[in-house]
Amino acid sequence: MDGLLDVIKAYLPHSEGYLPYYMFGLSVIAVGNSLQNYLTLHYSRRLYNGQFVPNPSLPVKSANFEPEDSTSKLSPASTSNTKDGRTTDQVTPLAARLFGTYTFISAIVRIYASYNLHLAPVYNIALWTYIVALFHFGSEWAVYRTAYIGPPILFPFFFATVGILWMTSQYNFYVQA
């Protein structure tokens, strides 16, 4: 058993403190999340669970306007129209693959950073991955209404917030001048 632990330890980041392990561990989880985005929509649908209907206030198709190209072609379903047969979430195979790719890129940045927290540019880029994630999930919940408060969105809120607070408070501990 000690031999196996020694092999595992050899691949973990070598640094003081626990932040590198936090980042490394979340990155491993993120790689798994990326893979699941390519394989199924099930988990993404649990997170992005807002229901939408075609936006009735859009103008009709004309030579100068295509409703299908509008970023507001769907509007949140109200409590009065949720039984409408046209309600749907906004999770598509394309959206899942894009999200999976973004998550994988963030994981690569964080894994690399977990080994190189002493480098200010690397540290800052890793910090921005948490900021972008928190902004994304926050805007999907508060602005676009594609997600509701519940465990599927609370986990990314929690981990991004912890990452931001930890990295900003410990900058001088890890980054070498």
The biggest beta sheet, please? 2 strands, antiparallel
Level of helix content? 55-70%
Beta strand %: under 5%
| Alpha-carbon distance between the two ends | 40 Å
Which regions are unreliable across 5 or more consecutive residues at pLDDT < 50?
A: none
Strand order of the largest sheet: 1-2
Key structural traits:
2 strands
Describe it for me?
The chain has 177 residues and is mostly helical. It is built from 7 helices and 2 strands. It has helices at 2-11, 19-39, 42-47, 93-115, 120-142, 151-169, 171-174; strands spanning 52-54, 74-76. Strands 1-2 form a two-stranded antiparallel ribbon. Helix 2 packs antiparallel against helix 6.
Topology:
Elements lengths: L1 H10 L7 H21 L2 H6 L4 E3 L19 E3 L16 H23 L4 H23 L8 H19 L1 H4 L3
Antiparallel strand pairs: 1-2
Helix pairs in contact: 2-4, 2-6, 4-5, 5-6
Question: What is the compact description of this entry?
Answer:
With 177 residues, the protein is mainly α. It is 60% helix and 3% strand. The protein is elongated, with a radius of gyration of 20 Å.
